[in-house]
Amino acid sequence: MKYSVLGILSLVLTCHLTAPAQAVKTAKPSSEKPAARKKTTPAAVPSATESVTSTIIVPSWLPPTNPLQPAASIVTDLLDTKLDVRFDWSKQWLLGTASLTLRPHFYPQNQVILDAKGFDIKSIRLVAAGKEKNLNFSYDKRRITVNLDRQYTRTEPYQIRISYTAKPNELEAGGSAAITGNKGLYFINPLGTDKTKPRQIWTQGETEANSCWFPTIDKPNQRMTQEIAMTVEAQYKTLSNGLLVSSKKNADGTRTDVWKQSLPAAPYLTMMAVGDFAVINDSWRGKAIDYYVEPKFQNTAKTVFGNTPAMLDFFSKKLGVEFPWEKYAQVSIRDFVSGAMENTSATTIRQEWTQLTPRELIDKTYLTEGTIAHELFHQWFGDYVTAESWSNLPLNEAFADYSELLWAEFKYGADAADLVQQEKVSLYLSEAESKREPLIRYHYAEREDMFDRHSYDKGGRVLHMLRKYVGDDAFYASLNRYLTTNKFSASEISKLRVAFEETTGEDLMWFFDQWFMQRGHPELQVTHSYANGQVTLRVRQLQDSTFTPIYRLPVTITTWINKQATDTRIVVTKADQTFQVAAPQRPNLVKFDGEGQLLAKVQEERTQDELLFQYYNARNYLQKYEAIDELRNKVGDLAVSGMLRNALNDNFWAVRKAALEALRKYKGPEGNAIRKDIKRVAGGDVKSQVRATALATLATFPNEDFGDVYSTALNDSSYLVAGAAIDALTKAPTVSTRDRINALQETSSSAILSSLAKYYSLNGNLDQYPWFLRRLNDVAEDDLYNYLQDFGTLMTRIPPIEREKGIQRLEVLARTHANYTVKLGAYRALNTLLASTPSLKPILQDIKSKEKNEQLKAFYSLLQ
Question: Which residues lie within the region annotated Disordered (predicted)?
Answer without folding.
Answer: 24-44
